[in-house]
Amino acid sequence: MSTDLIMSNIKTNLPVAKPEYKQMLVNIQNKMPAVIRDTSNFHKSHSQFMQVTLDITAITPIRSIKHTLAEIDRTRSALQGAYISMRKKEVKLKKKEAQLVDCTAPLDRELLEIQILEINGHLETTQNAVNGALRKMNFLVNQHDQLLESIGRDEITEEDYEREESRYHIMTCMKQALSAARSHNGIIDEGNLIYLFDLGINAGQAQAEMFSYLNMENELLAENKAPSHEMTLKWLSACADKWADDPSNFAALRGFSTLDESSLTNKLLEEKKNV
Length: 275
Hints:
2 domains
């Protein structure tokens, strides 16, 4: 739908008004092409920066891939819905245009013209959303490839996902505990103490690790050195290494198994059986 057409309709149907309003309409009409051009850069919910820093916050690579794939799937589903919606509106538009050709009653023709204008507006809005979603999906597909490359893999399996879960939850728990401890004199908060218990990790041991890490940071600061985010990630990874077996051991004490290979869809397992 042409914005010029909308503006001309507004001007045509504008009742007698103060001159400044007509001047405003002229100004809007003259500058609208640039606004539309620049607006086309957006039409998506989040920036690429937000997608990989604030939306997909998983701290381990396979969990990051899982979240990225989930975002891709949601975007694909939205695109499918938008495509069906557009097709329906296009059919409605054709029907209205066909009715307009045969319509002779002036008021009926005017109403059909308004309905056609409305459908065209909906189509334009939907197309803008589709364009934004396509850019988002292309970005996420590229991120998926990049994540696989970063771990030296061509694909991941369900087994890979299940085996990484222990590291993911330990690192996520300690990440949250660290954030809480910074504002509580180094003490891990109750919510993450419960999280640690459910993972089968002794809270006293975790608290000792927390004090040790925070002391290391304070020593660096006392020497006018800046603790780095990479240092924090290495500490979280070391915690995951140290307690990697604790969740499975705790599950076993309760009668559970954290991995049942017979319940996986997994090419690697099938290949192992055939060897």
